[in-house]
Amino acid sequence: MMYSRKTNNRLLLIVIGFTFLHEISLVLFPNIYAIFSNYYLESELGIKPIEIIRIINIELLFLIMFAIGLILSQKHFSNRYVYDKPNQIEITKKEAIFLYIIITLQLALNLVEYFKPLPDPSLIYQHADIKQHANVLNMFIYWLPGIFRFPGLIIAGYVVVSKTKYVPLKVFSYGLLVTTFFSALWIGWSGPLIWVTSVVIAASIYTGNIKYFKPAVILIVFVFVFFSFIRTDIRANSYYLEKLSFRNKISFLVNMRISNNRDNNLFNNKNLFNMADRAEGVRNSAFLLRLCDAGQSAGIKPIFSSLYFPVPRYFWKNKRPPGSIDSGNYGSAIFIVQNQKNGSLIEMGPILASAHAYWEFGLLGVIIIGALTGYFWGKVTYKRAQTSLIQYIIVMTFLCSLLIDGLFTAMYPVYSFIIIFWSVILPVYLLFYTIRKLRFL
């Protein structure tokens, strides 16, 4: 973070700041809890303390290489503290049209999602199955909503904290953030709640408008406390909860918490226990290290399969899914760790990027991928002569590459960066570039 301040780069400060929060919340905290609870959660899964220590050492090595790559990516390093002016970008007419398109489409999708009939709960067992579409048009319709999800939130957060003459754009932005927040709160999904507050915090830092910073921080603390109280079980019951009145829903949540009586709560504090239980990335990573040590490394497969991700499955039916080591989505690390842990073939589990790199190429992979990840972030956040709205959107979208655990971070598996580039960043940039080049606007 000191480096980002010295290089006079608010965008880099945002990236490092979110990564720091991610490491403190989801790596350091659960390990401190593990030490003081005598590795209770780990022992439930048959994970030994020495395995956790090894994972932390690998994570530290990855972080060191990340920092080295980040520094090498910069053309110069200033030893002076330079406090730059806020990055208030004057939105042009063409940029406003681009922003209107993204925000209104995502807001419409939010409303459709909120009011559409609830799906059959049995479909959860098929949520990661490979979708076979009858034609290219159906495939495009299925893929389209994913383009605007994160860019829409990122743009809305930026517009809300910025000064703009386009009042309807600000109204739509507020609408998008509010509908995302309350629809997620209603079904108990913590992820979008954190994303909404995070995009406001990021935009506050980038624009220098701290008026929205403190409320957003208070809101994100509320989300952490609220979901440490109700645990993740609420997600599994979301179908049932949607059918309840507000009063009955609260009663259900309280009873669910009371019935969740696992032993060994540190300091007799169930909230700390729930928070540590949810932060499972370190524990999950133990299974990836075991696979690699047993000679079942992934190699180049997860990365290579993401390179040809844009090729439609309609034309290549046996295409390996991106990030997977076999012909199905369940060959991805996020599913493998859950299968290794509790036999589930449908759940996704958070993992550490360092452990994923180890699973692919061993210790050498941790060193090389760690350095390349840092170098990549140094380049995409490099401070230009003029601030750029599209650069801000691209960087923030990369921070959303694989949001399983809810928090933005710079450290994801390589394949996830490639996927989000193909599926979101490239289409959004092409839309932006096309609108900018239109002469009649």
Structure description:
The protein is an all-alpha fold. The protein has one domain (2-437). It is built from 20 helices and no strands. The chain has helices at 2-6, 10-36, 40-44, 49-72, 93-115, 136-143, 145-161, 167-187, 190-207, 213-230, 233-236, 238-242, 246-259, 270-278, 281-293, 301-307, 333-342, 353-380, 389-398, 414-437. Helix 5 (93-115) runs parallel beside helix 8 (167-187), helix 8 packs antiparallel against helix 9 (190-207) and helix 10 crosses helix 14 (270-278). The protein is globular and about 65 Å long. The chain starts with a helix and ends with a helix.
List the helices and strands and how they pair.
Blueprint lengths: L1 H5 L3 H27 L3 H5 L4 H24 L20 H23 L20 H8 L1 H17 L5 H21 L2 H18 L5 H18 L2 H4 L1 H5 L3 H14 L10 H9 L2 H13 L7 H7 L25 H10 L10 H28 L8 H10 L15 H24 L4
Helix pairs in contact: 2-14, 4-15, 4-18, 5-7, 5-8, 5-20, 7-8, 7-9, 7-19, 7-20, 8-9, 9-10, 10-14, 15-17, 15-18, 16-20, 19-20
Order of helices and strands: HHHHHHHHHHHHHHHHHHHH
Number of domains: 1
How would you state the average pLDDT, rounded?
A: 81
Q: Count of DSSP helices?
A: 20
pLDDT below 50 for ≥5 consecutive residues: which ranges?
A: 78-84, 231-236, 257-261
Structural class: mainly alpha
Report helical residue fraction.
Answer: 55-70%
End-to-end gap: 41 Å
Rg of Cα set: 22 Å
Provide a concise account of the structure shown.
By secondary structure, the protein is mostly helical.
